[in-house]
Design a protein that fits this description.
The protein has one domain: 3-Layer(aba) Sandwich (Rossmann fold). 44% of the residues lie in helices and 11% in strands. The protein is built from ten helices and eight strands.
Length: 325
């Protein structure tokens, strides 16, 4: 892990203010050894009501129980399960629409859930499972929540949308086009070898960055007092990364961050007063640990405003086609 990834000094969690009254959603947050779970824990300890995203009620409920046991001081009503499978766009739409209708406010969305590099496989709609889960699902989830987010921002400025990305976005060839739905299935060299799998993961992470930039552009054009941020959490030892490298290659994770350390940059993006006070410096930007604006690490693809706009339009088309079936 390079020193470029480390903010010095490490983020002091005591600088995160009281979040009582605020409502947050953190997806992919059920495993105690994950980044998402640690984000939930710290937001809840600061007083926020947090909805814990997972693919099943068993997983989300397990996280709720574990957190209540570890921290009896957290009010029971402040930890709630939220079940959705990001690869199932119809379910994503239904869950997000119901949430937006039933809840009075939403201040923070941390789109943390995702799949690591894997062989190219497609869902029943012919879209890469990885790209669908890592980009289209969070994209649709966020768009369906926008009415509630905007309503909240009108009376409580400083709403945050935080999208976890990765430095692997640089593996996507320069000049890549998101102009067709089929581009979401780009093989990038192959369908099963390690390098191609990693590049395709990077493709979905590039989409996360571009979505963030276009979302902030639209917020600013509409005068919505909200901040969208993408970030690389760092190299973190989690169940997902352990499974990815495999038992024979665990040495690759030597020196990796702990899940709590990996959660620090998302926590900073989601809750630090600095982000709102310096909105012009953080809005639409990309962060590296622990919360450093790092546009210099972005590829040319990730800085391409036209590509961000094209991705948005193509994503909307892909989703509309799926929802119409």
């Amino acid at each position: 892990m390079s020193s470029r990834e480390i903010r010095s000094p490490e983020l002091d969690l005591s600088t995160i203010p009281d979040l009582s009254g605020k409502v947050a959603i953190v997806t992919g947050a059920y495993d105690p050894n994950s980044i998402g779970y640690n984000v939930v824990e710290q937001l809840a300890l600061k007083g926020a009501k947090v909805f814990i995203g997972a693919r099943s009620l068993e997983k989300a409920g397990g996280a709720v129980s574990a957190l209540q046991k570890a921290h009896p001081s957290i009010p029971a009503e402040n930890l709630q399960p939220l079940v959705t499978d990001l690869n199932d766009l119809k379910q994503v739409q239904s869950v997000a629409q119901s949430f937006a209708k039933e809840q009075p406010r939403l201040d923070i969305v941390v789109n943390n859930a995702g799949l690591l590099a894997r062989p190219l496989d497609k869902n029943e709609h012919g879209i890469s499972v990885s790209f669908n889960t890592n980009h289209l699902g969070p994209f649709l989830f966020t768009l369906e929540l926008l009415p509630l987010l905007k309503k909240t921002a009108a009376s409580n400025p400083g709403v945050r949308i935080v999208n976890l990305s990765s430095t692997t976005h640089v593996l996507v060839p320069s000049g890549f086009k998101f102009d067709t739905v089929e581009s979401f299935n780009a093989e990038l060299g192959g369908t099963e070898d390690f390098n191609s799998n990693l590049a395709r993961y990077g493709l979905s992470k590039l989409a996360n960055i571009l979505f963030t930039k276009e979302l902030q552009k639209r917020f600013d054009a509409e005068g919505v007092p909200a901040v969208a941020i993408s970030l690389h959490p760092g190299g973190v030892r989690t169940p997902g990364s352990i499974n990815f490298v495999g038992p024979a290659n665990l040495a690759m994770l030597d020196g990796a961050m702990t899940p709590l350390q990996g959660a620090l940059t998302p926590i900073f993006a989601a809750a630090s007063p600095e982000v709102w006070v310096k909105k012009s410096e953080y809005g639409g930007k990309h962060l590296m640990p622990y919360g450093v604006v790092s546009e210099d690490v972005l590829s040319e693809n990730a800085k391409d405003e036209a590509l961000a706009s094209t991705l948005w339009a193509t994503s909307e088309k892909a989703i509309a086609d799926v929802l119409a079936k």
